[in-house]
Specification:
With 699 residues, the protein is of the alpha+beta class. It is built from 16 helices and 36 strands. The protein folds into five domains: 270 residues, 3-Layer(aba) Sandwich (Rossmann fold), CATH 3.40.50; 104 residues, Translation factors (Elongation Factor Tu (Ef-tu), domain 3), CATH 2.40.30; 72 residues, 2-Layer Sandwich (Alpha-Beta Plaits); 113 residues, Ribosomal Protein S5, domain 2; 83 residues, Alpha-Beta Plaits (2-Layer Sandwich), CATH 3.30.70.240. Bound molecules: guanosine-5'-triphosphate and magnesium ion (MG). The site of magnesium ion has 7 residues, from helix 1.
Length: 699
C-alpha cells in the first residue's frame, strides 16, 4: 500500500436523507476504482460500509463507516453516514473527519427533511460540498425538477457541473460541463466511462449550462471576471482551478448526477472528487486549544509538525476489542508510536495502525497529516479525545451533539445479570454518543436513553447479540418538563438559632415566566448589601437544585426568571448552606403562586402511506392529539405531516404497520415543548405522587 501525502488525499463524507443511496454509492465507487472485484450491494447485505449485523438485518445504515478508493494517484477516504433521523448524530459527528461533503439527493423524491438538515451541518462547519442527484436510473427520476427544487431551497450558488444523458431506464452517462465532453457508461455495470462527443440533441442545453457555470465561477474572482468580460468565456485551464477555488471557498455548490446501483456516473464522480474537492491539508491549519493555558492554538496540517490526531469514532468490537478511528491533524503517526492522550493525560501505544476498508483494517507503517486511520486496543482513549506528541500538546474541540429524546426503563431478563448488563452497556456507550445509561434515583430503575424508540431497540438487540445479555424494555419515560405561567413573589427564610452555632439565611425573590426554550435566568437585584455578595451564588444554586428536582411531578422546572431583590443575614450564623436552603424554600413558595404546569415534547412526524390510507391516518393522528400540518403526494404515496405529542406516539410503529398492512413508514423528530392539557397533566401528576415525586418537603 502506497503512503499518501495530504495533498493527494480527499476526505469526503456522504450525507443525505435515508434511502438516497449513500451506502450503495460508496460500494459502487470502490468497485469502479478497482478496490474490490465485485459490486457490493445493500440489498443482499454485501455492501462495504453497512457491514454490521443490525445494518444488514434492517437494510439501512446505523453508524458512520469508512472505506477508501485509490484513484489516479489520489486516495479518497469515503465516510458513509446514516440518513435516518434517529441516527443523524452519527453523520454530524463524522463531519470532524471530513474536508468536503457529497450531499446525496434522491432523483425521484427530491428535497427531503434530512437534505436540509445535513445541508445545515455543512453550513455550520463551513464544509465545502457538492450535491449529487442520485438514483437517476429510477422510474420517475427527474433532473430538472430536482435541480429547480434545490436552487429554490438552497440558493443560487447551486449550479450543475454535469448534465445527465438520458433519464430513468435510459440514464447512460453525463456531460462534463467543464471539459464539454460526454462520458458514456456501458450497461454492464462496470462503472467505466468512455469519452465521447456531446450528443447533438444536448449541444444547446450543454452550452447554456456551461456558460452559466463559467459566469458563476468568475463571479467573486476579479481576475477571472476580467478575462470573462474580455473574451466572453474562460478557457478550461483557468476554469478548472477557478472552480476548485470557488468550491473551497463555498461560493458555489456544484451539482452532479449518478446512479450507484448500475454504477453510472461513478468514474466521473471519482474524477470530480480528485480534481475539484479540497485536499486533506488544503485548509492549511487547524484550530485547537492549548491544554495548559486554555488559550486558542493553531497547528499547521503538515508532515513536519509534531504529531496530533483527533478521535472521531470508537467501535466496541466484541472480538477485536476497542477500535479507535482518528484523523491525523498534523505530523506523521507511525505504527508503534507512543502518543499522549491530552484529555486523559495517559500514554497510549499505537501497536498497529491501519486504514479502514469497511469492516477490515489494512495495516500501514505510517499515516501522514490529513489521513484517516484506525487502531485497536487503546486503553483509555474515547471519541472526542486528542492524541499527540508529548512535546506539543493541543486539544481539538469535540463535536457537541443534541440530547437524547426518549428514555426506557430496562431490566435484565435473568436476575443477577445486572453487572453484566452494566459492563456491556458501558462498552456500547463508548461507540454511540447519543445513547445514555442512568439510574432513576426514586424508582431505582435502570434507564436507557436514545434519540428514538428504534434507536433504543437496536441497542437492546446489540446487547443480546454481542454480549449475550437479554433485557426487557419497559414503558418509555417521556421527558416532561415543568414551568410557570404566572408571576410570584416570596420569601425564603431559614433560621435555626437554638443553642450553639446557628443557621441563618433569608432571601426575597420574584419569579416570572420566560419564553419557551429560554431555560433559567437569575438576576441579582440586591442593593446595599442586604445579602453579602459571597452568599448570592448560594441562593442561585439552591434555586437551581430545587428546580432540577421539580415541583409538580419531579420533572425539571424550565423557562423562568428569578429576581433576587432583598434579604437579610446574620454575622455569625449565616453560611452558604443556610442561603442555599433559603433559596430553595423561596423557590418552592414562589412555585405555589406561579401557576405551575407540565410541558411535554411535541414531535414533528412525517408519515408516508399509499394514497388510499391517508384519510384513516389523519383521523388516527387527530385521535392522538395530533395537529395535521400538511399533506402532499409523493409518487403513488401520500406524505402526511403532523405535530403530535411524543406521549401519544409510543406504539405508533406497530399501529402503523397494522393500519396499513405494513405499507406505511414514518419518521419523527423533536419539535418543541408545549403545555400538557389539564386532564392529562392531573393524571401524570397523581401517578408521580404515588411514586413519591414532587412537592417533597426539605426539612
Ligand atoms: N434503482 C436504484 N436503486 C438504488 C440506487 N442506489 C441505491 N438504491 C437502492 O435504494 C435503497 C437504499 O440504498 P442505500 O444505499 O442503503 O441508501 P442510504 O442512503 O445509504 O440509506 P440510509 O443508510 O438509511 O441513510 C436500496 O434498496 C438500494 O438498493 C440507484 O442508484 N438506483
Ligand atoms: Mg446507508
Amino acid at each position: 500500500m502506497k503512503t499518501y501525502d495530504g495533498e493527494n488525499i480527499r476526505n469526503v463524507v456522504l450525507l443525505g436523507h435515508a434511502d438516497t443511496g449513500k451506502t450503495q454509492l460508496a460500494s459502487a465507487l470502490l468497485y469502479t476504482a478497482g478496490m474490490v472485484n465485485r459490486l457490493g450491494k445493500v440489498d443482499d447485505g454485501s455492501s462495504i460500509t453497512d457491514y454490521d449485523e443490525e445494518e444488514i438485518k434492517h437494510g439501512f445504515s446505523i453508524s458512520a463507516a469508512l472505506a477508501y478508493a485509490e484513484w489516479n494517484g489520489v486516495k479518497i477516504n469515503v465516510i458513509d453516514t446514516p440518513g435516518f433521523n434517529i441516527f443523524l448524530h452519527e453523520a454530524e459527528a463524522a463531519l470532524a473527519a471530513a474536508d468536503s461533503a457529497l450531499l446525496l439527493v434522491h432523483a425521484v423524491s427530491g428535497i427531503e427533511v434530512q437534505t436540509e438538515k445535513t445541508w445545515g451541518f455543512c453550513q455550520k462547519a463551513n464544509l465545502p460540498r457538492a450535491l449529487v442527484i442520485n438514483q437517476m436510473d429510477r422510474d420517475r427520476a427527474g433532473f430538472k425538477r430536482t435541480l429547480e427544487a434545490l436552487s429554490n431551497a438552497l440558493g443560487r450558488s447551486v449550479i450543475p457541473v454535469q448534465l445527465p444523458i438520458g433519464e430513468e431506464k435510459d440514464f447512460r452517462g453525463v456531460v462534463d460541463l467543464v471539459r464539454m465532453r460526454a462520458e458514456l457508461y456501458e450497461a454492464d455495470g462496470s462503472g467505466k466511462a468512455r469519452d465521447a462527443d456531446i450528443p447533438a440533441e444536448m449541444q444547446e442545453a450543454s452550452t447554456e449550462a456551461h456558460e452559466a457555470l463559467v459566469e458563476m465561477v468568475a463571479e467573486g474572482n476579479d481576475q477571472l471576471l476580467e478575462e470573462f468580460f474580455d473574451k466572453g468565456t474562460i478557457p478550461i485551464e483557468d476554469l478548472a482551478p477557478g472552480l476548485r477555488q470557488a468550491i473551497a471557498e463555498n461560493r458555489l455548490t456544484p451539482v452532479l448526477v449518478s446512479a450507484g446501483l448500475p454504477s453510472i456516473g461513478t468514474e466521473s464522480l471519482l474524477r470530480f472528487v480528485a480534481d475539484y474537492l479540497p485536499s486533506a491539508v488544503a485548509r492549511g491549519s487547524v484550530e485547537g486549544v492549548d491544554p495548559a493555558s486554555g488559550e486558542k492554538a493553531a497547528r499547521r496540517m503538515a508532515n513536519g509538525e509534531p504529531a496530533s490526531a483527533f478521535v472521531f469514532k470508537t467501535v466496541a468490537d466484541p472480538f477485536a476489542g476497542r477500535l479507535t478511528y482518528f484523523k491525523v491533524m498534523s505530523g506523521v503517526v507511525k505504527t508503534e508510536a507512543m502518543l499522549v492522550n491530552y484529555n486523559r493525560s495517559a500514554t497510549e501505544r499505537l501497536a498497529h495502525v491501519g486504514i479502514p476498508q469497511g469492516k477490515s483494517q489494512n495495516p500501514v507503517p505510517e499515516l501522514r497529516a490529513g489521513d484517516i486511520g484506525v487502531v485497536a486496543k487503546l486503553k483509555e482513549t474515547l471519541t472526542g479525545d486528542t492524541l499527540g506528541d508529548k512535546q506539543a500538546p493541543i486539544l481539538y474541540p469535540p463535536v457537541k451533539l443534541a440530547e437524547p429524546a426518549i428514555s426506557f426503563a430496562i431490566e435484565p431478563k435473568s436476575r443477577g445479570d445486572e453487572d453484566k448488563l452494566s459492563t456491556a452497556i458501558h462498552r456500547m456507550l463508548e461507540e454511540d454518543l447519543l445513547l445514555r445509561f442512568s439510574r432513576d434515583e426514586q424508582t431505582k430503575e435502570f434507564l436507557l436513553s436514545g434519540s428514538g424508540q428504534q434507536h433504543v431497540e437496536i441497542a437492546v438487540s446489540k446487547l443480546k447479540r454481542r454480549y449475550n445479555v437479554e433485557v426487557t424494555l419497559k414503558a418509555p419515560k417521556i421527558p416532561y418538563r415543568e414551568t410557570i405561567r404566572g408571576k410570584a413573589d416570596a420569601q425564603g427564610k431559614y433560621k435555626k438559632q437554638t443553642g450553639g452555632h446557628g443557621q441563618y439565611g433569608d432571601c426575597k425573590i420574584k419569579m416570572e415566566p420566560l419564553a419557551r426554550g429560554e431555560g433559567f435566568e437569575f438576576v441579582n437585584d440586591i442593593f446595599g448589601g442586604a445579602i453579602p455578595k459571597n452568599y448570592i451564588p448560594a441562593v442561585e444554586k439552591g434555586i437551581q437544585e430545587s428546580a432540577a428536582r421539580g415541583y409538580l411531578a419531579g420533572y425539571p422546572v424550565v423557562d423562568f426568571r428569578v429576581i433576587l431583590y432583598d434579604g437579610s443575614y446574620h454575622d455569625v450564623d449565616s453560611s452558604e448552606m443556610a442561603f442555599k436552603i433559603a433559596g430553595s424554600m423561596g423557590f418552592k413558595k414562589c412555585m405555589e403562586q406561579a401557576k405551575p404546569c407540565l410541558l411535554e415534547p411535541i414531535m414533528m412526524a412525517e408519515i408516508t402511506v399509499p394514497e388510499n390510507y391517508s384519510g384513516d391516518i389523519m383521523g388516527n393522528l387527530t385521535g392522538r392529539r395530533g395537529r395535521i400540518q400538511g399533506m402532499e403526494p409523493k409518487g403513488q404515496s401520500t406524505v402526511v405531516k403532523a405535530q403530535v405529542p411524543l406521549a401519544e406516539m409510543l406504539t405508533y410503529a406497530s399501529d402503523l404497520t397494522s393500519m396499513t398492512q405494513g405499507r406505511g413508514t414514518y419518521s419523527m423528530e423533536f419539535s418543541h415543548y408545549d403545555v400538557v392539557p389539564q386532564q392529562i397533566a392531573d393524571k401524570i401528576i397523581s401517578d408521580a405522587r404515588e411514586r413519591g415525586h414532587g412537592k417533597e418537603e426539605e426539612e
